[in-house]
Amino acid sequence: MESQQQKRTGEREQPGSGDDWKESVLYQLYPPSFKDSDGDGWGDLGGMLEKVDYLAELGVGAVWIGPVCDSPMEDNGYDIRDYYKIHDAYGTMEQLEELIAKLHERDIRLIMDMVINHTSDEHPWFEASRSSIDNPYRDYYIWKPPGEDGGPPNNWRSFSEESAWELDEATGEYYLHIFDKKQPDLNWENADMRRDLYEMIRFWLDKGVDGFRLDAINMISKDPSFPNAPEEARHPRGQQFYKNGPRIHEMLRELHEETFGRYPGTLSLGEAPTVTMDEVVRYTAPERREMDMVLQMELIRLGKDFGNPWKIDPDWSPVTLKESVVRWHAEVFGQGAYATYLNTHDHPRMIGTLFGGAAGKSEAQAGDLNQAAAKAIGTFLHTLPGTPLVYQGEELGMPNANYGSPDDYRDKATVAAYKRRTDEGEAPEDVLRSLHARSRDGARSPMHWTGGERRGFTTGTPWIPLSPDGVEANAEDERADRNSVFHHYRRLIELRKQSPVPAHGDLTMLPLEDDWIFAYIREAEGERWMMLVNFSAEPRECPVNAEWARLAEAGELLLGSAPAHAGSAGAGAPFRLSAGQYRLHLLPYQSAVYRLDGDRADAAPEPL
């Protein structure tokens, strides 16, 4: 079948169509943890160059690399000191240019992470800004005099749970930092500042960068009155006054006109936390010319307490997951655009936290469950509406790093939370347990290239400890095993290239008595697929309509994670007939994808 991805990298189409991005699979590469080429324990551009063929073998259409611009590394590069320079630990501008060229040769596009809500406090703009209240760069950032009580201008809190304002004693004023105090927020009300940012973005687009993931982009417009937030407001306090602010759409349209709109075919992918679906449509509707896609962040927050970022919530329900998928399809799909993901550098990996090896299992059993769960997650991700985003190591089934000591953690918020909570009297082992489930460092442990002592990541000491678990989940072994998670992902990506269903198909979620089993149908251009996924670590069984079995029997098994059951219907369909009743039986984390017979597709079960 002819591939859906026909446009070669570099052939820029007009803004607004964007189908080639929707049909692609994005791969997130976290630079410090991907591959170290010089033995200093820090991933770099040289390591990325070594693994271009690996990415091509996997079949991804674009690679998003985390920030590589010069930085003091207070937040692993999300605190940019110089937008025009590559950070020394990552390599050189020449290496980045070589990476762009090598990826383009393999029809893979490069997306850079760009932080334009804030900079480092060591950026020349901020150093000039804080030098005096009369400096021309003063208004590039948000400065306010003390409040009536002589303290901060308002009661907003940063993501580190401290005041969002920092006093500059030299000038007697406070500057705003929604993130760390080393990351002052830029003042997007200043036209000169915006002009300088647009010039910088065009610099990178001229180098052949194919797009940007725009960090915290829905935070650039602040309420100009800077009001106090209710004291009981959820963490971080004050966010309702700077997320999706009063001028956000105007600012994004100008950003598009001055940058992406001049480079047809480039991608603007927005990180927009707590955005509503109505806002997603406004951000990404092609005719509005603001952004091409946003990251769908509901799924990544499974099991997380919104009011307490460290709270473990083991009672999350799969019903919530189903409802989210159905709602986003109904309210956004076809009107706006979004990227769907289940793992990222900012959240713990789902394998080893929500899914995978369970208590009471042997090490071998836990490893097998992790691999099965990884295939289930992959099947789900790649057959959902939206553009799939794969985080490095996810395609291997790497589990979340289960660090045994607080000294293993590097994330500033994690380290601060451990100290605060133990100082307040919590048992260290209880705090560590919650850090394992919630710290983003668990997803930042280095990539497993081999099963050796350093996993093939470095010849030196890695910047963050290697995961003590999941040695079997490594690229060398999995590439040699045709039944591995790696090849499961590779086949899923290939299926996306061969059919319009994953990128463009309508969604029908099918009713079942068992909430842990997901059954849904996608349809596009007369082609229909049925997906079955068991998200439980236990076998699951439930009654189904006989038409389900007949549909599967008449169809084709495109991809399955488990062998056929004896006496099952069709090409490995896990249906059993007993006493005149068909029952669906799935092994732990079993998943399957079927292409249904077009002549009988209209007989599908009723939707939810």
From TrEMBL:
<dbReference type="GO" id="GO:0009313">
    <property type="term" value="P:oligosaccharide catabolic process"/>
</dbReference>
<dbReference type="Pfam" id="PF00128">
    <property type="entry name" value="Alpha-amylase"/>
</dbReference>
<keyword id="KW-0378">Hydrolase</keyword>
<feature type="region of interest" description="Disordered">
    <location>
        <begin position="439"/>
        <end position="466"/>
    </location>
</feature>
<feature type="domain" description="Glycosyl hydrolase family 13 catalytic">
    <location>
        <begin position="28"/>
        <end position="444"/>
    </location>
</feature>
<dbReference type="InterPro" id="IPR045857">
    <property type="entry name" value="O16G_dom_2"/>
</dbReference>
<comment type="similarity">
    <text>Belongs to the glycosyl hydrolase 13 family.</text>
</comment>
<feature type="compositionally biased region" description="Basic and acidic residues">
    <location>
        <begin position="8"/>
        <end position="22"/>
    </location>
</feature>
<dbReference type="InterPro" id="IPR017853">
    <property type="entry name" value="GH"/>
</dbReference>
<dbReference type="InterPro" id="IPR013780">
    <property type="entry name" value="Glyco_hydro_b"/>
</dbReference>
<keyword id="KW-0326">Glycosidase</keyword>
<dbReference type="GO" id="GO:0004556">
    <property type="term" value="F:alpha-amylase activity"/>
</dbReference>
<dbReference type="InterPro" id="IPR006047">
    <property type="entry name" value="GH13_cat_dom"/>
</dbReference>
<feature type="region of interest" description="Disordered">
    <location>
        <begin position="1"/>
        <end position="22"/>
    </location>
</feature>
<protein>
    <submittedName>
        <fullName>Alpha-glucosidase</fullName>
    </submittedName>
</protein>
